[in-house]
Predict the structure.
Amino acid sequence: MINRELIRTKIVQLTYAYYQNGNRNLENAEKELFFSLSKAYDLYNYLLGLIVAVTKEERHRTEIAVQRAQREGKEEPSTKFPYNKFAVQLEENKTLCEFMEHQKTTWEDDIESVRRICNLIEQSQTYQEYMQSEDDSYEADREVWRKLYRQFIQDNEDLDSLLEDKSIYWNDDKEIVDTFVLKTIKRFDPKNKSKQELLPEFKDEEDKDFARKLFRATIINGEQYQHFMSEASHNWDFARLAYMDVVIMQIAIAEMMTFPNIPVSVTINEYVDLAKIYSTGKSGGYINGMLDTIARHLISTGRLLKNIEQKGDNEKEE
């Protein structure tokens, strides 16, 4: 689940913190990086658990409504949503159950937040259309949860605030993690029952290695990379750079120098995007030009053995 976009984001955060922290211990900083990544994986599981929590709350509500209807001799409400086939399969998922069993906090601790999401769902057109539909297939059950997740969990400021309060590591993770939850919903297959595989923490050892190598290269060779910036910046006002800009460019240079198979244009584009999020309004365009200049300088002096497109071929749009 932890992809390179998330790894780059965490390395920007942890590198900045490393230089701001007076106690610069690389080994401890690296442990903090991997702990931060593991917390992102926890968030992935926790958000899957929210679907289960909503389902259980809806089941509880329906049971109360059924009892009331029986007492009053009225028609009993539908149990279609509380026993949604996809949600039940997720509820029984062995991997998710094991994760939730080992958590100190559960969604029961935030039941009011769960209830608010239930209220939003029940009032939605998506829910009403689902309840009225005669399609009782697994595919329809899975699809309604994909839609509901996007409408009421992915885009939910109150939920974002709640998660940020629970963990400082989740402040910037949810947007990326949401995409993996949606991917997981799409991958679920009824034939796999409770043994349906969730996304692994790392796709493979190569991505884990990418995180370790990039972070170490950034810190160990930091002075050298900043020297590269100075060398190539005679036409740029380097002294007026925001400190975060320096950090982002240092990591970008580390990636260029350490990973021969990643094209320069890909690296530049990735860190321009990060600059737009974590630095000033002008940083994206500035870093785009600076990194292009630095890469060309390193290639021309034989220190970077990569090709680079002619200027304008693949520049980042501002």
User: Anything to note?
Assistant: The radius of gyration is 24 Å. The longest helix spans residues 26-72. Residues 312-318 have pLDDT under 50 and may be disordered.
